[in-house]
């Protein structure tokens, strides 16, 4: 290896700084325990600090403020695991005397795999020390003794610290970035500074070249029109692509914490366009990005004036006794809640017998009376079927998000915004990004600022950066009643829109989808809805994560999905999976066949949007609401 003089004194200073940070990180873990394992103070490369464990508590307190309140509590470690880590670390440090060992170590991590790292002794030693130290800290997090929530919080804090302290994140230690500075005669550095200033102005790190996307021009382009609006949402109806459509219209309810066009990115991966192409008269809720004038809106407002209003409006426009509905993520939770409200009202107004199951068209025909059939149809439940995509109803398993939720945190949010205010969209977006810090944060910090690169165009990441606000009362209610107390699965505990709700009273057929690698709605948590709802169910698991698993059009023939056809829904997800069959390709075709079976007969497609003068087209899709920035 040859020393690159371009590192200079600055590189050595940063190297010293970085080594000190590792020493501090070890010190703090020592402070979290009543005593250090014997011999740890002699670990090489950690400096001569009197307490050689140090600094990670700062990262923990920064990542999770709720851990910093009250008197400090000692975190206990498994002594045997710590001794094993110590021995492993000592052996690994000794291997750093061998250049080939260092090169092999770096090659296993994509951040340090390029030849520039191995060619520079300062950079390679910094990266090697980092990898050994991060491995040790991660092992120490696994050695924490305590309840699962405490262990998960420690793991998360360590992950944030380790991700942030990678030498690749520092210009003076990033051999690849410095090589590019020399190669471009400083142009990459100048462009990196320009990228940094641009991102500071827009308030978030760019994950894609946002200048290449315009909502309504090359994303959210399926042809349609806004046919209704109120202060919470616009209702978009889409132009049919088939000569005939199913008699039961189809309404999609996306999450209100994101823009609706995740369902309509490009023509070849649009869920909306796919539904229209399958013969469904399709409507979509486009939530308004709330400003201060909606800062007082509650969960009840969004259910009554949002979801339920959308359902009744679609019924009215199409003059349809029943419609089919779909909810995605939080939109699915809102939709399920709205259906429970509707079920309670329907049962009270028409009686349980009428609410349970509508008469078939054949049975109605036997009466020989159109008037009698109309009366029967008037009493059927307004929703014929429901699709839930990556949706939580049972909040017992909320994955990594659970580390943020406890009584203190929820109470703080209630004090801050329970009576009014806004949860800023960028704050939520940042939280979700740091769930995968290397992929969704530091990868772009290095590329955009240190390398001076413009990230490639990617529609999904453009959408991901187009965040929305939430009204404080809505957000606070959601945190307490669902994430913290899991009240949605408790019959009669919640009163929503004046109705005591019971999810088991939802008797319509339900199609439930979960993604295998979902870190926001774990697949087992999506499956748990099958244990709560009271009607016919079908569950499918798709590959990939929260978004990529859902947006998986059949034409691309990517990924797999899993089904079981015996109709059994055991209590544990793993028991369901043990008897499931893997099928190649998208789950969309299975869902389309299922939805079509609940959509009724075919009718001539409408020639215009809305219905006569009652619901005239207001403006072309995607409408004004989706254009509002947080």
- How far do the termini sit from each other? 50 Å
Can you give the mean pLDDT? 84
Could you tell me the radius of gyration in angstroms?
Answer: 28 Å
Helical amount: 40-55%
Can you tag this structure with a few keywords?
630 residues, alpha/beta, two-stranded antiparallel ribbon, 23 helices, 19 strands, 12% strand, disordered N terminus
Task: Report on this structure.
- With 630 residues, the chain is α/β, with parallel strands linked by helices.
- It has 23 helices and 19 strands.
- An 11-stranded mixed beta sheet has the order 17-16-15-14-9-8-6-7-4-3-19, with helices on both faces. It has a two-stranded antiparallel sheet with strand order 1-2.
- Helix 3 (79-95) packs antiparallel against helix 6 (121-142), helix 9 crosses helix 18 and helix 11 (299-318) crosses helix 12.
- The radius of gyration is 28 Å and the shape is globular.
- The relative contact order is 0.12.
């Amino acid at each position: 290896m040859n020393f690159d003089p371009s590192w200079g004194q600055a590189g050595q200073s940063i190297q010293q700084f970085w080594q000190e940070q590792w020493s501090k990180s070890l010190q703090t873990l020592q402070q979290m325990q009543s005593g250090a394992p014997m011999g740890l103070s002699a670990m090489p490369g950690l400096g001569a600090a009197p307490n050689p464990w140090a600094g990670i508590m700062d990262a923990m307190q920064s990542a999770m403020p709720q851990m910093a309140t009250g008197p400090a509590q000692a975190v206990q470690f498994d002594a045997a695991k710590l001794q094993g880590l110590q021995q492993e670390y000592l052996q690994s440090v000794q291997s750093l005397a061998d250049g080939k060992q260092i090169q092999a170590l770096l090659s296993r991590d994509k951040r340090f795999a390029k030849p520039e790292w191995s060619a520079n002794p300062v950079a390679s030693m910094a990266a090697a020390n980092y990898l050994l130290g991060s491995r040790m800290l991660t092992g120490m997090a696994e050695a924490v003794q305590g309840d699962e929530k405490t262990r998960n919080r420690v793991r998360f804090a360590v992950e944030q610290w380790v991700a942030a302290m990678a030498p690749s994140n520092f210009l003076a230690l990033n051999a690849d970035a410095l090589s590019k500075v020399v190669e471009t005669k400083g142009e990459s550095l100048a462009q990196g500074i320009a990228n940094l200033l641009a991102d500071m102005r827009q308030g978030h790190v760019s994950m894609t070249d946002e200048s290449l996307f315009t909502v309504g021009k090359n994303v959210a382009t399926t042809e349609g029109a806004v046919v209704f609006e109120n202060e919470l949402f616009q209702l978009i109806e889409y132009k049919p692509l088939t000569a005939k459509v199913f008699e039961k219209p189809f309404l999609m309810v996306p999450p209100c914490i994101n823009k609706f066009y995740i369902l309509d990115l490009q023509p070849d991966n649009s869920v909306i366009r796919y539904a229209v192409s399958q013969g469904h008269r399709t409507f979509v809720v486009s939530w308004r990005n709330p400003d201060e004038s909606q800062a007082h809106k509650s969960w009840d407002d969004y259910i009554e004036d949002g979801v339920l209003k959308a359902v009744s409006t679609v019924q009215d426009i199409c003059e349809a006794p029943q419609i089919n509905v779909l909810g995605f993520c939080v939109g699915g939770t809102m939709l399920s809640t709205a259906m429970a409200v509707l079920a309670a009202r329907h049962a009270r107004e028409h009686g349980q017998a009428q609410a349970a199951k509508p008469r078939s068209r054949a049975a109605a025909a036997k009466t020989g009376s159109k008037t009698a059939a109309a009366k029967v149809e008037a009493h059927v439940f307004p929703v014929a079927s429901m699709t839930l995509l990556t949706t939580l109803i049972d909040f017992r398993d909320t994955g990594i998000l659970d580390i943020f939720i406890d009584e203190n945190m929820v109470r703080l949010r209630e004090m801050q915004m329970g009576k009014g205010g806004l949860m800023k969209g960028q704050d939520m977006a940042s939280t979700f990004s740091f769930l995968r810090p290397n992929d969704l944060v530091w990868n772009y910090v290095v590329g955009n600022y240190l390398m001076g690169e413009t990230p490639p165009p990617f529609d999904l990441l453009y959408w991901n950066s187009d965040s929305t606000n939430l009204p404080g009362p809505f957000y606070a209610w959601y945190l307490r009643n669902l994430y913290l107390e899991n009240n949605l699965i408790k019959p009669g505990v919640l009163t929503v829109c004046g109705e005591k709700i019971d999810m088991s009273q939802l008797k319509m057929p339900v199609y439930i989808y979960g993604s295998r690698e979902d870190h926001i709605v774990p697949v087992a948590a999506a499956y748990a809805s099958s244990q709560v709802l009271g009607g016919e169910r079908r569950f499918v698991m798709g590959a990939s994560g929260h978004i990529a698993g859902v947006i998986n059009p059949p034409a691309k023939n990517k990924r797999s999905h899993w089904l079981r056809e015996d109709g059994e829904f055991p209590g544990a997800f793993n028991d369901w999976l043990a008897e499931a069959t893997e099928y190649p390709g998208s789950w969309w075709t299975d869902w389309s066949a299922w939805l079509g079976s609940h959509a009724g007969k075919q009718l001539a497609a409408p020639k215009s949007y809305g219905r006569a003068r009652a619901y005239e087209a207001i403006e072309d899709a995607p409408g004004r609401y989706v254009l509002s920035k947080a």
